[in-house]
Every structure is written in C-alpha cells, then in structure tokens.
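#random but structural
TW: two for the price of one
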Amino acid sequence: VQLVESGGGLVQPGGSLRLSCAASGFTFSRYGMSWYRQAPGKERELVASISSLGVSTNYADSVKGRFTISRDNPKNTMYLQMNSLKPEDTAVYYCNSKIISKDYWGKGTLVTVSS
C-alpha cells in the first residue's frame, strides 16, 4: 500500500489549495479514505472522510463549508479542495486508508496559511 500526497504549499489567508492523494497497492474503490492534519504541537485530527464510492462524506466542524473531499476511483486518487483558508488551517495534511483494520498513511504535505 502506498499513499502519496501532493499539492501543499504557502497560501495567503482567504486563498485556496487542492490536495491530492495518489493511492496504489490495493483496490482503491473498495475502501473509504480520509484526510487528517497535524498542526505544530497538536495531535493529529480528522479533517474529512469519504466512502468507497464517494456517496458519503463527513467533515470536521472546523472545515465544514470550506473544504470539499472527493475521489476519482478510475484514477486511484483522492482530493481535498480547501477554500477560504485560515492561518489555523496550517498543518501537515495526511492521506489515510483503513484496510482490514490497519491504518495506512502517506508522508504528508505541508500547508502553510500566512500573509
């Protein structure tokens, strides 16, 4: 199983970014996927999750209405569209999949929201 995040960077408050997670080594369309983030000095937290076929999504209260999770199963890729970014969104963002009760993680991509 391999999960590779991309799309992070430096953005001004109010700006947008789209993160991608490229998955390989498993049947992507069979499993739910999630985005987590970890800010400096804080615990890793769940940002958003999406069901295997993309029918069901869930969001942390802190990102509802600003972030959108989606997936493209033929491309084995998950996305996180982040709009109206705030400084408190600064964190390393991780892609996650739980397969047969085991968690798999990418290495993360850094998002910095600062003027």
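TW: number two ↓
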Amino acid sequence: QVQLVESGGGSVQSGGSLRLSCASSRSTITIGVMSWYRQAPGKQRELVATITSGGAISYVDSVKGRFTISRDNAKNTVYLQINNLKPEDTAVYYCYARVIFSAYWGQGTQVTVSS
C-alpha cells in the first residue's frame, strides 16, 4: 500500500506560480512511476507530467515550458512546479504512483486560476 498526500494548491491570479507537493508513505526510490494528473470541471482526468525511478521525465504538450516535475527521494516527495499559470490550468491536481502492477492515487489538491 502507498498513501499519497498532495498539498500546495490554492487560488492565484493568471501569471502566478504554485508548487504542488505529493508526499508518499513508501520510499520513492522503490516507486517506478510517479505522475501528476489533473481534472477540470466537466472534463476527463488528464496526465500532466511523469517522472520515473530512472529519472525520465515527460510532459503533456500544453504544459511544456511552464510545469516542472521533480522528486526528492530523501523526503519521499514529488513536486510539480507550475509557473505562468493560466485560467485553463484550473483543476484538481492528483498525484499518482505505480508500483509494479498496482496503482495509487492521492486525494487531490485544487488549483484555481483567475484572469
């Protein structure tokens, strides 16, 4: 079992920044894939960014250049730095972890961007 707890969401104006955190109950060194997803009202959940245990990183095209995913294995935490926020970034952001064949989700943190 892996418990994931997100934090760092909030309400910001367009152009602002936030850093989301995802604290894991399991050592992140042992987690093969950790990702951030988001779900906007009335839309499907979408993958935003992924980081693997080997350090490979990928982003959805719409956030490239503005979002940065990173992990601190000493703190068992994955971060999502979000810069130049836009109203269309408004969503609940979820942390995801995959350990072999099991998947785990956090409870989500709300990000609201006003223009």
